[in-house]
Amino acid sequence: MKSIYYICIMCLAVLQACGTTATKGETAETLTSYVEPRIGTAHCRWFHFTPGAMPFGMAKPGPSTNGHLGNASGWEATGYDYRENSIEGFPCLHEFQVGGIVLMPTTGKLITIPGLPTDSIKTGYRSHFDRANEVATAGYYSVLLDDYQIRAEVTATPRVAYQRFHFPKGVDNHLLFDIGNRQGESGAVADAFVSYTEDGRVEGWVITLPEYVKKYQPGAQVPLYFSAVLDKQPSSFGTFQGEKQQPGARELKGVGAGVYLTYDFPEAESVTAKIGLSYTSVENARLNLEAEAKDLSFDEAKEQAHRTWEEYLGRIRVETSKQEDKVKFYTGLYHALLGRGLANDVNGAYPKNDGSIGQLEMKDGKPVHNIYNTDAAWGAQWNLSQLWIMAYPEYISDYISSHLQAYEDAGWLADGLANNRYVSGVGTNLLPTIIAGAYECGIRDFDTKLAYEACLKNELDGENRPFGAGKVNTKEFVQYGYVPHADEGEGYHETFMFSASHTLEYSYSAWAVAQWAKQLGDTAHYNQLMYLSKGWERLYDPSVNFIRPKKKDGQFVDNFNPMQVWRGFQEGNAWQYTFYVPHDVQGLVGKVGADVFNARLDSIFTVSQKMIFSGGKEVGAFAGLQTLYNQGNQPCLHISWLFNEAGRPSLTQKWVRAILNEFYGTDGIHGYGYGQDEDQGQLGVWYVISSMGLFDVKGLTDSQPSFGLGAPLFDKITIQLNPKYYSGKEFVIQVKGNTPENGYVQQYRLNGKPLHEPHLPFASFAEGGVLEMEMGSQPKDLY
């Protein structure tokens, strides 16, 4: 399907679903009409496609085509695959390492197994569907299930999933609650319980064993709880476990447990389920349902979700005649606000790292901050944190407070958390770069004293460090000034196989915390951290002009191949990682030589463009690892912006635009590369900030942070500033002469005054104002 046609059909469907009539305080342009959640859903992660969710919500309902199959390692694609044409159910929870509570409507003979998406003959309750009969946008999804002629709809409040099913008339209409089976990234099920209560609720729980939890916090479990109310009473009910059915039974315990409700409708009728969710108890799931949805209908919840998404998306407004770029932009922005969702209840109860239930301090009937599930922060300093600081500072503050609560409870920062269980992901921990960046940009309404303590411990303490806290090489890094290499290892020891990339990451995060230490007058820690920040120099081999792994004895590894993946470099190679010195680009340029540096960079992109800046058209999360450059993974995301720091900003403008236009697509297969791993918004947000022409390779962690400036895709960009954090009302970027032929900035002016370098101090951004850019067809490197 052609992408423009795809967009037009989608936008029309969304406009029909959401309406375009302007209300008080709302412009006529409906931004959710540009959100296309199906972009990039071929080979996408479990948390990627959950269109029914609210921003940063707990309840994340959406369809699944293959979620019950799970995945082997916890990171593989599962859930909704654009290439498949049958739906097996509508899970209420789609989070990093968390999934479950599935509803599915059917008609006819009662079938209680899902079947396989590859079955040529129907064997389960899954139903075929046609994407022409789907509506997917921010906060709402609907689809016609062809096998049953049932229209299914989902939406949500923050902690309550809404599912509505329009049944045909008949005596065999069923609604399945599949609770006790694996879903997406949930891992295997340890136990489950489901009940159809005397007062008409469907309630229960499931205890899951996510693969990352098993790896990073062995013995820990992730429980999920729910309480659902329905607006129609069934004519009969029962339980099921696989194909075994027990008519009339009200409850069932054990792996595979489920409940079915059967309805007899003389005429076509709808059934609405409100499913309260919790990570602490069934009682709190009821409480969440009562607090958020007691008197709220499906249509009212849908409209509330729509208004909320419009407000969040509307904090950044872009203007262009290229509708396709708006679709890419607002879909990327949507993903930045979708993942890393709520984990605490309305009463402040939350799951603690040790499996017990914690209680947040309450103020005016609300928690003083929230707790969030979160994928690891690996690379987030080059996308999510910069966007959140710009337009969502209240969220990044809350996000940091959530991590600090985990630090108080467990004693260590942990950048990846599933219900506060450790899920480190890549075994490192760059969370201090996010915390330091927020602090340097003036976001300080979290416990900054505790945060500094936690960050210092993260950078310097390697004693008795749990595997799930990441950076388990910290002791050796502090001892040697670099991470010594080992070619083999398992568990904790596997991290030494990634010695060079860990050295580079630890060097950068040490530098970020060092800037904070200097401001606090903590000279001893500043000096120690600055020494460690030069760890990259200890691995730079001038004989080959690459970062090269080094052993304990101080010798570089032999048989070095800079294109080799996994030997010294996690999810990358020396070609890619040698540029991972964001805190000292000038130092790296000095070692390589400015001309060689820029020529190498330019040639890398020239070659990589033929591979669409990653793995070409190969569908796979790791398709681009063994290449010169990989836009599809975090370690490379700053590289195209390095020309700004090496005196050739025109090349940043050239290559960033090329990546924006070619790597990013608008359909299910070519969305974020071809089937790349979007990691809870990271690739989408790179598009958002880069297409605005604002990006800091240091992740805003400098003591006087600034944005590097590029060439925006849009004619005008308006960013609303949060008055609680920033003195300005809005920051506006105006681009004159912005055509495909005019790809180079000729002049920058801030509030009418020329800028003589391609950098914007963050302080100027926070004050609000107007940044003007004049575009031309010829590259220009001096302003």
Automatic annotation (TrEMBL):
Residues 284-777 form the Glycosyl hydrolase family domain. Keywords: Calcium, Glycosidase, Hydrolase, Signal. Transmembrane segments: none annotated. The keyword Coiled coil does not apply. Residues 34-278 form the Glycosyl hydrolase family 92 N-terminal domain. It comes from the Bacteria. Its EC number is 3.2.1.-. InterPro entries: 6-hairpin_glycosidase_sf, GH-type_carb-bd, GH92_a_mannosidase_put, GH92_N, Glyco_hydro_92, PNGase. Its cofactor is Ca(2+). Residues 1-22 form the signal peptide. GO terms for molecular function: hydrolase activity, acting on glycosyl bonds. This is GH92 family glycosyl hydrolase. The lineage of its organism: Bacteria, Pseudomonadati, Bacteroidota, Bacteroidia, Bacteroidales.
